[in-house]
Amino acid sequence: MLLLALDTATPAVTVALHDGTDVVASSSQVDARRHGELLLPTVHRVLGAAGVGLDAVTGIVVGVGPGPYTGLRVGLMTADTFGLALGVPVHGVCTLDGLAYAADLDGPFVVATDARRKEVYWARYADSRTRLTDPAVDRPADIADEVAGLPAVGAGALLYPDAFPDVHGPEHVSAAALAALAAERLADGEELAAPRPLYLRRPDAQVPKNYKVVTPR
Questions:
Q1: Which residues neighbour 56 within 8 Å (Cβ) at sequence distance 6 or greater?
Q2: Where is the Gcp-like domain (predicted)?
Q3: What are phi and psi of 164, to 5 degrees?
Protein backbone atom coordinates (compact mmCIF):
# COMPACT_ATOMS: atom_id res chain seq x y z
CA MET A 1 0.00 0.00 0.00
CA LEU A 2 1.17 3.52 -0.81
CA LEU A 3 -1.46 6.19 -0.22
CA LEU A 4 -1.08 9.71 -1.57
CA ALA A 5 -3.11 12.04 0.63
CA LEU A 6 -3.93 15.69 -0.02
CA ASP A 7 -6.21 18.39 1.35
CA THR A 8 -7.04 21.95 0.28
CA ALA A 9 -10.19 22.51 2.35
CA THR A 10 -8.46 24.91 4.76
CA PRO A 11 -5.78 27.56 4.17
CA ALA A 12 -3.23 24.72 4.33
CA VAL A 13 -2.05 23.02 1.16
CA THR A 14 -0.97 19.66 2.54
CA VAL A 15 0.30 16.42 0.95
CA ALA A 16 1.61 13.15 2.42
CA LEU A 17 2.55 9.60 1.49
CA HIS A 18 1.66 6.69 3.75
CA ASP A 19 2.82 3.09 3.23
CA GLY A 20 0.10 1.50 5.35
CA THR A 21 2.24 1.57 8.48
CA ASP A 22 3.86 5.00 8.68
CA VAL A 23 3.98 8.38 6.96
CA VAL A 24 6.81 8.19 4.42
CA ALA A 25 6.95 11.90 3.56
CA SER A 26 4.79 14.98 4.00
CA SER A 27 4.73 18.70 3.32
CA SER A 28 2.32 21.51 4.22
CA GLN A 29 2.13 25.22 3.42
CA VAL A 30 -0.44 27.73 4.65
CA ASP A 31 -1.62 30.11 1.93
CA ALA A 32 -5.36 30.45 1.42
CA ARG A 33 -5.02 32.15 -1.98
CA ARG A 34 -2.59 29.78 -3.74
CA HIS A 35 -4.07 26.29 -3.49
CA GLY A 36 -4.01 25.77 -7.25
CA GLU A 37 -0.48 27.10 -7.58
CA LEU A 38 1.04 25.16 -4.69
CA LEU A 39 -0.63 21.76 -4.77
CA LEU A 40 1.15 20.01 -7.65
CA PRO A 41 4.64 21.26 -6.68
CA THR A 42 3.94 19.99 -3.17
CA VAL A 43 2.97 16.57 -4.54
CA HIS A 44 6.18 16.53 -6.58
CA ARG A 45 8.25 17.49 -3.52
CA VAL A 46 6.70 14.76 -1.36
CA LEU A 47 7.21 12.09 -4.01
CA GLY A 48 10.81 13.22 -4.41
CA ALA A 49 11.42 13.09 -0.67
CA ALA A 50 10.09 9.53 -0.62
CA GLY A 51 12.14 8.55 -3.66
CA VAL A 52 9.17 7.18 -5.61
CA GLY A 53 7.26 8.09 -8.73
CA LEU A 54 3.56 8.83 -8.98
CA ASP A 55 3.06 5.44 -10.62
CA ALA A 56 3.99 3.75 -7.32
CA VAL A 57 0.86 5.12 -5.63
CA THR A 58 -1.86 2.51 -4.99
CA GLY A 59 -4.59 4.82 -3.68
CA ILE A 60 -5.52 8.47 -3.25
CA VAL A 61 -6.91 10.02 -0.07
CA VAL A 62 -8.47 13.47 -0.29
CA GLY A 63 -10.02 15.76 2.29
CA VAL A 64 -13.63 16.42 1.27
CA GLY A 65 -14.17 19.40 3.55
CA PRO A 66 -16.26 21.10 4.60
CA GLY A 67 -14.46 24.08 3.15
CA PRO A 68 -14.74 27.06 0.80
CA TYR A 69 -15.75 26.16 -2.73
CA THR A 70 -12.69 27.45 -4.57
CA GLY A 71 -10.04 25.89 -2.37
CA LEU A 72 -11.83 22.61 -1.82
CA ARG A 73 -12.38 21.86 -5.49
CA VAL A 74 -8.64 22.16 -6.24
CA GLY A 75 -7.85 19.14 -4.09
CA LEU A 76 -10.86 17.13 -5.19
CA MET A 77 -10.27 17.67 -8.90
CA THR A 78 -6.59 16.83 -8.53
CA ALA A 79 -7.39 13.65 -6.60
CA ASP A 80 -9.95 12.56 -9.21
CA THR A 81 -7.46 13.23 -12.01
CA PHE A 82 -4.74 11.20 -10.30
CA GLY A 83 -7.18 8.38 -9.66
CA LEU A 84 -8.27 8.22 -13.29
CA ALA A 85 -4.74 8.50 -14.66
CA LEU A 86 -3.34 5.81 -12.37
CA GLY A 87 -6.40 3.56 -12.26
CA VAL A 88 -6.41 3.55 -8.46
CA PRO A 89 -9.22 4.17 -5.94
CA VAL A 90 -9.87 7.66 -4.56
CA HIS A 91 -11.01 7.77 -0.92
CA GLY A 92 -12.72 10.75 0.66
CA VAL A 93 -12.15 11.67 4.31
CA CYS A 94 -13.86 14.49 6.17
CA THR A 95 -11.31 17.23 6.80
CA LEU A 96 -12.68 17.75 10.31
CA ASP A 97 -12.01 14.05 11.02
CA GLY A 98 -8.37 14.57 10.08
CA LEU A 99 -8.08 17.44 12.55
CA ALA A 100 -9.75 15.38 15.26
CA TYR A 101 -7.41 12.45 14.63
CA ALA A 102 -4.32 14.65 14.83
CA ALA A 103 -5.53 16.32 18.03
CA ASP A 104 -5.67 12.94 19.80
CA LEU A 105 -7.74 14.27 22.72
CA ASP A 106 -9.37 12.10 25.35
CA GLY A 107 -13.10 12.59 25.89
CA PRO A 108 -15.57 14.73 23.93
CA PHE A 109 -14.43 17.81 22.03
CA VAL A 110 -15.28 20.05 19.06
CA VAL A 111 -13.44 20.69 15.79
CA ALA A 112 -14.02 24.07 14.13
CA THR A 113 -12.47 25.52 10.97
CA ASP A 114 -12.91 29.00 9.53
CA ALA A 115 -15.92 29.23 7.22
CA ARG A 116 -15.59 33.00 6.72
CA ARG A 117 -18.70 35.22 6.94
CA LYS A 118 -18.21 35.10 10.74
CA GLU A 119 -19.09 31.39 10.70
CA VAL A 120 -17.32 28.11 11.39
CA TYR A 121 -17.49 24.61 9.94
CA TRP A 122 -17.76 22.32 12.94
CA ALA A 123 -18.64 18.94 14.41
CA ARG A 124 -18.61 17.27 17.83
CA TYR A 125 -16.48 14.21 18.59
CA ALA A 126 -16.62 11.53 21.28
CA ASP A 127 -12.88 10.92 20.80
CA SER A 128 -10.24 11.39 18.12
CA ARG A 129 -11.76 8.69 15.89
CA THR A 130 -15.51 9.01 16.52
CA ARG A 131 -17.59 11.88 15.15
CA LEU A 132 -20.94 12.40 16.87
CA THR A 133 -22.57 14.96 14.57
CA ASP A 134 -22.65 15.71 10.86
CA PRO A 135 -20.46 18.62 9.77
CA ALA A 136 -22.34 21.91 9.91
CA VAL A 137 -21.79 25.61 9.29
CA ASP A 138 -22.98 28.12 11.90
CA ARG A 139 -22.16 31.33 13.69
CA PRO A 140 -20.27 30.53 16.89
CA ALA A 141 -22.78 32.42 19.03
CA ASP A 142 -25.59 30.22 17.68
CA ILE A 143 -23.91 26.99 18.83
CA ALA A 144 -22.54 28.27 22.13
CA ASP A 145 -24.86 26.05 24.18
CA GLU A 146 -23.94 22.94 22.17
CA VAL A 147 -20.18 23.43 22.57
CA ALA A 148 -20.13 24.91 26.07
CA GLY A 149 -17.45 23.37 28.26
CA LEU A 150 -15.89 21.32 25.46
CA PRO A 151 -12.27 21.63 24.33
CA ALA A 152 -11.99 22.80 20.72
CA VAL A 153 -9.54 22.17 17.90
CA GLY A 154 -8.84 24.18 14.75
CA ALA A 155 -8.36 27.66 13.35
CA GLY A 156 -12.08 28.41 13.52
CA ALA A 157 -12.04 27.94 17.29
CA LEU A 158 -9.06 30.29 17.64
CA LEU A 159 -11.01 33.06 15.91
CA TYR A 160 -13.87 33.02 18.43
CA PRO A 161 -12.53 32.68 21.97
CA ASP A 162 -15.87 33.67 23.52
CA ALA A 163 -17.47 30.52 22.10
CA PHE A 164 -14.34 28.33 22.27
CA PRO A 165 -12.28 29.34 25.34
CA ASP A 166 -10.32 26.05 25.53
CA VAL A 167 -8.51 25.62 22.20
CA HIS A 168 -5.99 22.90 21.33
CA GLY A 169 -3.86 22.23 18.25
CA PRO A 170 -3.48 21.59 15.46
CA GLU A 171 -4.72 24.75 13.77
CA HIS A 172 -4.99 23.27 10.27
CA VAL A 173 -5.42 19.75 8.95
CA SER A 174 -2.39 17.76 7.80
CA ALA A 175 -2.41 15.23 4.98
CA ALA A 176 -0.25 13.03 7.21
CA ALA A 177 -3.15 12.72 9.67
CA LEU A 178 -5.66 12.14 6.86
CA ALA A 179 -3.47 9.40 5.40
CA ALA A 180 -2.90 7.70 8.75
CA LEU A 181 -6.62 7.78 9.55
CA ALA A 182 -7.52 6.40 6.11
CA ALA A 183 -4.90 3.65 6.38
CA GLU A 184 -6.24 2.68 9.80
CA ARG A 185 -9.82 2.53 8.56
CA LEU A 186 -8.87 0.53 5.47
CA ALA A 187 -6.91 -1.93 7.61
CA ASP A 188 -10.04 -2.38 9.74
CA GLY A 189 -12.02 -3.25 6.63
CA GLU A 190 -14.04 -0.04 6.54
CA GLU A 191 -15.31 1.30 3.24
CA LEU A 192 -14.28 4.94 2.97
CA ALA A 193 -16.54 7.63 1.60
CA ALA A 194 -16.63 8.65 -2.04
CA PRO A 195 -14.65 11.81 -2.83
CA ARG A 196 -17.68 14.12 -2.83
CA PRO A 197 -17.30 17.69 -1.55
CA LEU A 198 -18.92 18.93 1.65
CA TYR A 199 -19.62 22.51 0.60
CA LEU A 200 -22.56 23.05 3.04
CA ARG A 201 -23.42 26.36 1.39
CA ARG A 202 -23.32 28.10 -1.97
CA PRO A 203 -20.08 29.63 -3.34
CA ASP A 204 -19.14 33.13 -2.19
CA ALA A 205 -19.05 34.34 -5.81
CA GLN A 206 -22.47 35.26 -7.13
CA VAL A 207 -23.75 36.51 -10.48
CA PRO A 208 -24.62 40.24 -10.14
CA LYS A 209 -28.36 40.88 -9.93
CA ASN A 210 -28.35 43.24 -12.92
CA TYR A 211 -26.10 41.03 -15.01
CA LYS A 212 -27.09 41.03 -18.69
CA VAL A 213 -26.22 38.18 -21.03
CA VAL A 214 -24.75 39.45 -24.30
CA THR A 215 -25.08 37.13 -27.26
CA PRO A 216 -23.65 37.64 -30.75
CA ARG A 217 -26.09 38.53 -33.49
A1: 2
A2: 32-144
A3: -130, 80
